[in-house]
Amino acid sequence: MRRHFLILLTSAILLISFGISTAVTLRTMDRLVKENNRENSVIFANEVGNAVMDIFSEAVAVSRAMNNTFLQSLLADEYNLTPQQKDELIKKYLMEIIDKFGYATAFLADDRTMTYYAETGFTKTIDPSNPDDDWYVPFKESGKLYELNVDNDQANNNRMTIYINSRMKDSHNNFIGVCGVGVPIKLVVQMLQNMEIQNSIYIKLVAPDGTVRVGRTGQIVMQRTEQELKEILKDYVYSEPYMYNVKDSDGYTIIKYIPDCQWFVVIDYAGGKTSNFSTVLFRNLLFCLIITMAVLIVINFVLDRFTKNTEKFVEEALVDQLTGFKNRRAYQTELEKLNESGIVPNLCVASMDINGLKVTNDSFGHMAGDDLIMGCAQIIKEMFSENGWKVFRTGGDEFIAIINHPIKDIEVLIQDFKTRQQYFDHEQIKELSISVGIAQGKDHAEITRAEDLIKIADKRMYSDKEIYYSDARHERRNR
């Protein structure tokens, strides 16, 4: 009856708790969603930044490496080549760059002749008044080592390409041209689109002047105009990892600068999670309440049997069936408790190991070996268990005894233990011998863990075992 009353009381408490928790949770949901949004936005910004850098960092490095003595010499006409030979050599070099690194295009612009070369063999004269070439003079005059520029690739069917323009200088640090590689903008847009779909966000790559360099068609006007972006970027603090602005109820904009590209990642989230979360939360809480009530009813019928069997199973799981001592699992649990309790300095531990068990098993069979183990266990019980020690069988012929206070006469204890072994009687086994080593925490102030104290006892036990096997009458076999 008492258990039934507790079940009913618990059910009533659950119903009341359900009402209170639902009301409180719904009131705090907006705050939690905003906090979660901010954490997620930082993750998104870092992921996008890393993904963009993965694409462009190598491209920048390759473009910078193209400013080498070979191209410098070509532009200076040091090889005395004909125009056709020069064109062919440049084309071959640019094609090797593409074949090696897999970029969409590679190019070289000669400032002295104002000639533009591409890997396809396409060449043209650079005309700063032509919109297709209006990037050249601003980059030349900017003094930048490199920059990213979005433009049509005239050498490849005018496909939109992100160029890495790298400044070329001769040995006297004079500007001699521009070289670099191109990455298809479609590759970057596809990557950003996948992230947008997965996370319900909008991503743009924006130049410092607010110009959107990369973004899906249609979402630019929907989220931020270029003028708005320009105004926002004026307040960007480059020493900070990102800029975060709350938008609407639970939306946001996060902006992160990518130094390698000299662009900004701008991520917009429109919001709308709060109401969805509230509905889902209410349904989940109600469902959980119903399930919990059903489970409590079932538990009422099985609890009695479970309770009775559990204690028996736990006890059996921790006891060695042959000797009746606690087993290795219980031993490990005991070590954890001792280390947590801080009483290791007060401990006294004994490590014991049966001598000759392997010989007994080989000579008389495992039943005789079990008799030897049980005989050993009886002596350990009389000498240790019955005197307050906790005894564990930690291996086939290994035992550990632990007591949580120092022992005065250890040598007397060991001698009595050895003497007691002489009274073992068995029709086949002529001798029972147990090696023993004892260590006390009070003698080792530096030790704070029980395992370390047991190692000392083990070492002393093995020393005792060496004495036993030093007698030619005792055959030693690998266990």
Q: Please tell me how large the radius of gyration is.
A: 41 Å
Number of helices: 13
How many beta-strand segments? 15
Shape label = elongated
Descriptive account of the structure:
The structure is a single chain. The longest helix has 64 residues, at 2-65. The protein has helices at 2-65, 69-75, 83-101, 136-142, 185-199, 219-223, 226-234, 273-317, 328-341, 357-364, 366-383, 410-421, 450-469, and strands at 105-110, 115-118, 123-125, 146-153, 159-169, 175-184, 202-206, 212-215, 243-247, 251-258, 263-269, 348-355, 390-393, 398-403, 433-440. Helix 10 (357-364) packs antiparallel against helix 11 and helix 11 runs antiparallel to helix 12 (410-421). The chain contains 13 helices and 15 strands. The chain has a six-stranded antiparallel beta sheet, with helices on both faces. Strands 8-7-11-10-9 form a five-stranded antiparallel beta sheet. The chain has 479 residues and is an alpha+beta fold.
What features would you highlight for this structure?
single chain; 479 residues; alpha+beta; six-stranded antiparallel beta sheet; five-stranded antiparallel beta sheet; 51% helix; elongated
